[in-house]
Amino acid sequence: MADKVINKKALMNSAVLERMADRQLLDLLHELPDPDPILRKANIDQEVYAEIMGDPHVLGEIRKMYSALVGYKYQIKAGDDSSQAAKAQELCQAVLKKRPHGAMRWPDLIWSFGRAPLTGRRVHHVEWTMEGSNLVPKRIFDIPGSSYCFNYDGDLMIRTLNALEGEPAEPMRWLVTRHMPDAQNPYGIAILSSCFWPWMFKNGGIKFFAKFCEKFGIPWPVGQYPQGSTADQINELVERLQQLVEDAVAAVPEGVEMTILETKASGELPQERLVNLMNREMSKAITSQSLATEIIGNGSRAAAETGDKRTDQNNKADRGLPAATINQLFEWITEVNFGPAVPAPIFQWVDKKELNTTDVSFFKSAAELVPIRKADVYERLELTEPADDDEILFLGSKPKEEEQDKAEFSKAEQDQWNSEDQAISDIIDQIRAEIDKGETLEQALANMVAMVPNLDFSALETLVRQELELDFGTGMLEAE
């Protein structure tokens, strides 16, 4: 199959941006409407997401997502060991060193990709330019949701003035990041959509809670006017009581009785319970747990650890979306400059704190059963094997080479043995041989008992006698 011919001049043509139409001018002709049931029933669109993100509680949860994404380091690995793959890696690394847009750095763009779980999808336009002999992205930026749609086949359609129903997206020009899409819903699932009703009820609860605090949060001054007072006298008393609320000082006529009524409320108010409940519901949607932000009653360490683990799992899954989008961009850069046969470099997150305790345990267990290659260990743990002249840190067991050196050293000591040493070594070898003959522990013990009458202990007896005589003589000298 012949290689696909890429029209580089066509990629640098940005006329589609000039033809892009306003959403209000278009009719839904071949467009698949966003099937989000909450937005459709509430008769709203994605613009409400910006208001939801302005909620302090929601913004606090989103900042956790932001830090879990942008705070990670990443690396770019070559597609294989070929020289062309290495050149593609260098080119993609050079692209990440330049601003993708005048208003954004790469961390900003990565977060723009990473916002896909919140809104369901993100679409970014890629403008290309020639730098020397290479075709590279000039600008990468997001476009509003009103400027695109998806057809019934799930294909991206760009709304333009020339194509009211939307025109097919040109290849290698649009990066699409989607969260949990399927054939019936190519728009993806938006987390902020599930936050809509809790956000609405919370705002309503806060409004009534503010009214409650305004009415009953401070004591009420009550004045009793004498019977038969005129309306003007009553109004004057009310004004002076209002002055008491503002200034805490008031002058009232003699004979007027005044008391202070205090509101007595115990426990959590219904409005406050509503606000806390809605906050917890939004936390569950965004981070899959609410314990970190809303601890009700006594905390639980086990529950906190479970919540943290669940949040880490979600963050790991969410980081996969921008990584896949950047890898798509790397594939385009590699294909247009080196051809489809060259494997594209791989963008991947580096989590040094996860040094895969699971992999370490796996290799420890496997090494006790079968021999394993060191190259497999280094590759799995993503470590570089040290060279001969590298300074190394090793805290594990000694390598087999050192054990072999130790064995050779022991053999060298045998040259200095006398006849008694050799005789004792022979006894030990005979016992070991009888133990090895037994297939079970009982057989090994029986073999040892049976061989004892046939063993020559004369050398051992001589050695013991000499040791006893030496100790006796040493004791006599010390006694004198």
UniProtKB/TrEMBL annotation:
The lineage of its organism: Bacteria, Pseudomonadati, Pseudomonadota, Gammaproteobacteria, Alteromonadales. Residues 299-319 are annotated as: Disordered. This is DUF935 family protein. InterPro entries: Portal_Mu (IPR009279). Residues 306-319 have a biased composition (Basic and acidic residues).
